[in-house]
Amino acid sequence: MMNKNHNIRAAALAIFIMAMPAVFSCDTSTGMDPYVIIDVYTGAFPVDATHKLKIFLYVDSTWDLYYLTASYTTNVIYMPPLNTGDYPIYFEITYDADGDNTENAGDWYYGWHEKITNRDVEILDPLIRPDMEFMYISIDMEANHGTFL
Predict the structure, then answer these.
(1) Residue 9 maps to a domain
(2) Residue 3 within any structural domain of the chain
(3) For residue 58, with 0-12 CB atoms within 10 Å meaning exposed, 13-18 middle and 19 or more buried, which class applies?
(4) 84-120 pLDDT, tens per residue?
(5) Number of domains present in the structure of the chain
(6) Does some domain include residue 120?
(7) What is the per-residue pLDDT across 117-141, written as a single tens digit (0 to 9) for each?
(8) Computed from CA positions of residues 137, 142, 144, 145, in that sequence, does the dihedral angle turn out positive or negative?
(9) Would you call 127 exposed, middle or buried from its count of C-beta atoms within 10 A (0-12, 13-18, 19+)?
């Protein structure tokens, strides 16, 4: 009798575990949220532990309020799926040219897409995300960047 109850409990537990994603609405597909790989070319300017690249993800197109930032010591930025659904992603990449770990005079910026003239006037474009697993973006920041004043 005990063996039969054990088998029933084990089967019920297995069914529960398999049904958990549906019960708790876990979506394991990336849908419109692919991994984004951004290759940033800085030419003769090194990207390392002192001269980092940073990515800022903004709430809207006005450069005012960011909700996520990450710094990188290589020329490749990996952005995992953010599960933002239809909410647009606005981003900026900065390069710490003077190596002081702050965005100040002389450092570079690049707002998506090619917003490099005036951060006070230009608005960011939303990143159009394809319905696929990966998205690759290449940015020539050496030739295309604004400079913090």
Answers:
(1) no
(2) no
(3) buried
(4) 777 888 999 999 999 898 888 889 999 888 888 788 8
(5) 1
(6) yes
(7) 788 888 888 887 777 788 888 999 9
(8) positive
(9) middle
